[in-house]
Amino acid sequence: MSDTREKLEQMGFRILDAVRTELLLSMRFMAPALNSLGFKMDLATSSAGTDAAYIRFNPGFLLQVYVERPRRMNRMYMHMLIHCLFRHMFSARDREDPELWDLCCDIAAESVVDSMTYDVIARSHSTFREGWYEKLESEVTILTAEKIYAWFMERDRDYAMEEALRREFTVDDHSFWQRMEDEEPQEKPPGTPPGAPPDNDGQDGQQETQDSRHLKPVNPKEDEWKKNAEQIEADLDLIGKERSEEYGSLSRILRFESRKRTDYREFLQRFSIIREEAGIDLDSFDYGFYYYGMELYGNMPLIEENEFREIRKVDSLVIAIDTSASCQKVLVQQFLNETADLLSGIGSFFKKTEIHLIECDDKVQNDRVISDISQLQQYAEEFEVKGGFGTDFRPVFNYVEDLRAKGELENLRGLMYFTDGFGEYPKKPTDYETAFVFWKDEELDDTGVPDWAIKLFLTPEGMETVERRGSTH
Q1: Residue 245: inside a domain
Q2: pLDDT at 185 over 50
Q3: What is the largest CA-CA distance in the chain?
Q4: At what angle do helices 145-153 and 127-139 cross, to 10 degrees?
Q5: Is residue 291 part of a domain?
């Protein structure tokens, strides 16, 4: 029995290794991902799936598919790699509807594979599939599992349609996502493919296969897959846009997923500073010593209240507003109002504060200096989109440098430029924090933003900030 099992394992290893080699020869940029999955036979599945550490397979299934439709085997392997690169399995447990999450992950993975034009994974698409891609792209824009899942959850559920979608898009076995295991490194058994993680089947392999339904729910390789995604994104950038038809939407979605998400309040903290102000600091006041002195001496406390306290406030800031017609008034107002609310929560302004609200398109149109939060809120209510002109970001930066040369904006903390992203960017780095602020950016081409500037994207869900990886700040 053990001899038969070993032969089945070796057959599965050879098939998967051949598929991996074929994919690597066609898509060398996928090397980090291809080298991160080992192979393991698992009779608990009737097909194949991955737990982000191994491709777990039923050998009979592999043999049948590889003999009858080898290209389908290539696509299945690629499909599982996409799951890993976008780390779908690591958030499966957090979803309200795990079955819907599985479906959305499959749709997202297949959309990436279908967008690629490599012969080794090419296939014809059904009208049903193409129709759903068109529908989702028009309403979701960028097909990530998270966005597709949110789209379904926001609508009345059509379970019959969801079942039809499962029949169309299901490729691999996701049951391993709920029972991922953390295996201790051991020696690799004979027949393990080159580059595969170490296996621990050995003489207990049969028992492991039978008990695979009880794998411990742990998170073995999420950090590794995040690094793989970053490496592949960088390699695709080097390949260039001229070959983008080959790798399809992979690069764009990797860029979208690699952004650093932070709370907008946390981001605004960068523009505030800590200073001492006159006033009692109750947080640092020690009542124990105070009352001890009063009891011991009658009317003489051992310590006095601190007459100064440290407080975080805004000192000097520039907010530039693109007034061209492409920036909608309501979005500008929402940005300004939310900024005002959060700045007031940070601790308001110092007595001497300069916040310049600069309206601009291809030149500086207006500069309003405020020193109070209420003035920022009032400005938001009165703001009007001027329109009619193009956008050039450089005049604002030149104007700010002129103000600094005149002795104004001495303690400039930073500049936030709210814009649609279309315009001429400055080349020279600033010596203060600079952020170009965009609203809902899925399809925004932000490649012109200089590397030294922060690319900040605001979403409607609580004004979450999405900060591009690679910024130097």
Answers
A1: yes
A2: no
A3: 96
A4: 80
A5: no
Q: Are residues 192 and 271 in the same domain?
A: no
Lowest mean per-residue pLDDT among 196-205, 241-250, 387-396 = 196-205
In the 3-class helix/strand/coil scheme, how is 266-326 assigned residue by residue?
HHHHHHEEEEEEECCCHHHCCHHHHHHHHHHHCCCCCCCCCCEEEEEEEEEEEEEEECCCC
pTM of the model: 0.62
Q: Phi then psi for 465, rounded to 5 degrees?
A: -100, 140
pLDDT of residue 113: 96
pLDDT-derived band at 301 (thresholds 50, 70, 90) equals: low
For 30, the token pair is: 């996928």
Q: Are the C-beta atoms of 107 and 49 separated by less than 8 Å?
A: no
Decide if 342 is inside a domain. Answer: yes
The three-state secondary structure class of 397 is: helix
Same domain, 159 and 231: yes
Closest alpha carbon to 40 in 166, 173, 133: 173
Q: How far apart are CA 325 and CA 361, in angstroms?
A: 9
Same structural domain for residues 199 and 272?
A: no
Greatest mean pLDDT range, 132-146, 275-289, 349-363, 445-459: 132-146
Give the count of domains, the chain. 2
Q: Is residue 304 part of a domain?
A: no
Same domain, 53 and 159: yes
| DSSP letters for 149-211 | HHHHHTS---HHHHHHHHHHH--S--GGGGG---PPP-PPPTTPPTTPPP---GGGHHHHHHT
